[in-house]
Each structure stands twice: as structure tokens, then as C-alpha cells.
Amino acid sequence: MTWTELSLNGFIAVPFATALLGFAVARRREGLAVGLAMVGSLATLAWTVERNPVVHRAPGSTDQVWIKSLDVHWHLAIDGISGPLILLTSLTTFCCVLSLVRHAPACGGRGQLAALLMLIESGTIGAFLAQDLVLFFLFFEVALIPMWFAISIWGDEHDPVGRRRAANRFLVFTVLGSAFMIVGFVLVHSVTGTFDISAITAAAPGGDTITLAAVLTGIGFAVKTPIVPVHVWLPDAHAKAPTVGSVILAAVLLKLGTYGFIRFWLPLVEPDSALLLVFAALAVVGIVYGALACLAQTELKRLIAYSSVGHMGFVVLAVATYTAVGVQAAVYASVAHGLITGLLFFAAGAIKDRYGTGDLAELKALYGAVPRLAGVMAFAAIASLGLPGLAGFWGEMLAIRSALYPNSALPHDTFVVLSVIAALGVILTSAYFLKLMRGMLQGADPSPAKVDLHWLEWAAWSPLILLTVVLGVAPGLLLQPTAQSMMGLIR
Fold first, then answer.
1. Burial level of 442, CB count in 10 A (0-12/13-18/19+)?
2. Is residue 412, in this structure, part of any structural domain at all?
3. Is residue 107 part of a domain?
4. Residue 430: which domain range?
5. Tens-place pLDDT, residues 134-163
6. Helix (H, G, I), strand (E, B) or coil at 74
7. What is the pTM of this model?
8. Is 243 a member of any domain?
9. Domains in the chain: how many in total?
10. Is 152 within a domain?
């Protein structure tokens, strides 16, 4: 086995082995299980940094027959599209495990939850590495199923019925999305004779069967992303999930859908396909709907959840322009959303831990009660609304720019209208975050003073804060490797 093959398999094997060891010892020695997760997540993070194209500009791959009778290959590869998302996954998982040291679940089982996070990390990284459609599907499910347990068992301790309902809705929607996706993959194989996405992309297949496959896979990825109208599972899932569950769901699992659109959906779509216009329109509807829904929310985590619907709309809009800039914008916006929204959920969870509620009517003038925590929340909100100089700005602006100049085969005037509506969504995003800051953080009658940020919280959140600033100042760190890795995606 070459060093490249060892590295790619190690990305998956290290967190998976850590998860198994954690589950084995969690009941008897909870602290040891959390410690194992800490070591495993840190080792995975170091490995993904050392072997990532974002750092070394050196893509790698391995391809071996896995299930010969089904023509399934163990084909893994990392490049400038998957590399940033793998880094985001490993970093976010490490931050979540570190935060568990400070915030133990009210229902107990911290060691098992830490092991569950490592299992999610293994499945997610595997999905980002997979170049075989069936392999991608299998890793996809490995990443999603543990989230049901995280929401159902470790979710809102004050609402056991609600958390189980949210977990079940999450599972039903994701399973239905997976069903559409796998049927689409089988249709692709029936035409191309392969599940290998590299071969499929090079062949550039067309025809009615491939169009149907694109419709089905598009529905599947739309559920996972999610975009309107198949987003209804997301607000409840976020509201009832534990803090680390919300962070992982927003920062990592939603990116499986956006990555699927880029890697596995675009090669199936013709540049003049009406599907591109349909998904672009749905994305823009999601941008505006998500912002308007945020203006009406009275609970903090639900507000952040609806903001994700809008931000994911920018990603899908960028993909649907079928341009190189659109792909760059989609990858960049995915990473920026993961960093910023992960930070928002960390801060929201810390506020709820201290005050026992996320009801915005009961949270007032936090600048005076917990100034450092309120400052982090303000920073994350400003980054999420797209302030220039922070990572959130470039994702939104590049998405709008790509919609102004879509692929020449697409209706230019229609996409210009969509870009204008999306820009209106940016204004609405600013409105609801400024409203949140004015109502929850400012004022003369603060909520009762609580213990402010703990040093472990600073340690867990600081990487997200730092990268939000670094990528805002130097967006080329992500844009350049992405540009070098999308040959063949755009016809």
C-alpha cells in the first residue's frame, strides 16, 4: 500500500476505530471514552491538514475493486473540492469533542456521544472521499444514521416527545432522499455501465434516462442540503438536537448535500437543462423564505436553523449557474457557512445552558450579563450577515456574481432577475441578525448575570473565529485549489 493509499484510508479508519473503542469503554469509563475521542479527532485533524490539497496542492487517489459482482470500487480521492470540506469536518468534530469536556449532556452518556461524533466523522469524510456512487451512498448513510440517535437520546431534555418527533422526521426525510438518490445512481449505471464518477464525468452522458437520474438525485440532494420545499425537517432537528449535534448537522452534514450537487449532480446535467433553472429558482425562494422566517422566529436555535436554509440557497444557486465561478462560490460558501453557523450554534448552546431557555423574549441585554459570550454571538451574527472582511461575505457575493454571469446556454435575463432577488435576501439577512442583536444583546435591563466564557469554550471556538477572519481576508486560500480541481465538471 502506497503512502497516498494509506493516507486516504486513514482518514476514514482513524475516527472509525476511535468510535469503536469509545463505544467499548463508554459505559464503564466515560472519561476514557471522551479522551479517546479527543485523541482520535486531533489525530484526524492533523492528518487531514498534513495530507490536504488546500495545504500541499497535491491531489491523491486510490482505486481497487471492492464488490466485483456489483461493479463497486473502493475508489477514494481528495482534491481541491473535497479537501476543504474534509478539513472543515475534522476541525468541527475536534471542536465538538473538546466542548463536551465542558458541557456534559444532561441525560448523561457523554462518552457514548463522543464516540457517536467520531462515527459521524468517519462516514462524512468517507462520503467526501468517495468516487464511486454506491460507496458514496454507503458512507452517506453511515454519517446520517448516528444523528438520529444524537437527537433522539441526547436532544432537548425538557421535551422528550419533541426530540423524538424531530429525530423521526429527520430520519424519514433523509431516508426518502436516499431512496431517490440510489435509484438515480442505478439509472446512471444502466446507461454508462459504471458507478465511477470520474468515468461518468469524462463520458458526459446524456439522454432521457440520464435526465431522469438527474431529477432523482437532485431531489435526494435537495433533501439533504436542504432547500425549499423539502427543508421542513431542519428547524425541529436543530431546535431539539444537543449543541454538538446542531453544530455537526449545520457545519458538516448539510455539506453532504451541497457536495453531492457539485460532484455527482453536475456531471449528469446538460448546460442548457431546464433543471438548472428549476433548482436556481428554488434556491432563491429558499433565500428569501429563510430570511422572512428568521424575522418571525422567537427561539434562538430555530432562527439559526432557518438562516441555514437561506445560506444553502446561495450554494445551490451558485451550482445551478453551471460556471467555474459558481463551483468556486459553492465550495467557498459551504465552508464559510460551516465555520460561522457552527460558531452560532456553539454560542446559542452556551446561552441556553446558562439561562435554561432559548426564548428570545426572555434573553435581554446579554452584553451586560455575559459580555464575552455576547461578543462571540455578535461576531458570528455579523459574519453570517456577510460583513466584508469576514468569510460570509465572499460566499454570498460570489454566488450572486455567478448568477449575473451564468453559463451561456442558460437564460441570462432570468438569472439576472434571480441574482437581484438573492441580493434582496442579503438585505433581509442583515435585518434579522441586526434585530436579533438589538433585542438579545443590547438594552438597559439585562438578564441575570451568569458565568461568562470558560477557557475550554474559548479553546473550542477559537479555530472557527480565526478561520472566519483568515478566509475573509484571504479568500484565495480556498478559491485557488478549487479552481484547479474542477476540470470536467463544467462542459
1. middle
2. yes
3. no
4. 273-491
5. 999 999 988 888 999 999 999 888 888 989
6. strand
7. 0.95
8. no
9. 1
10. no
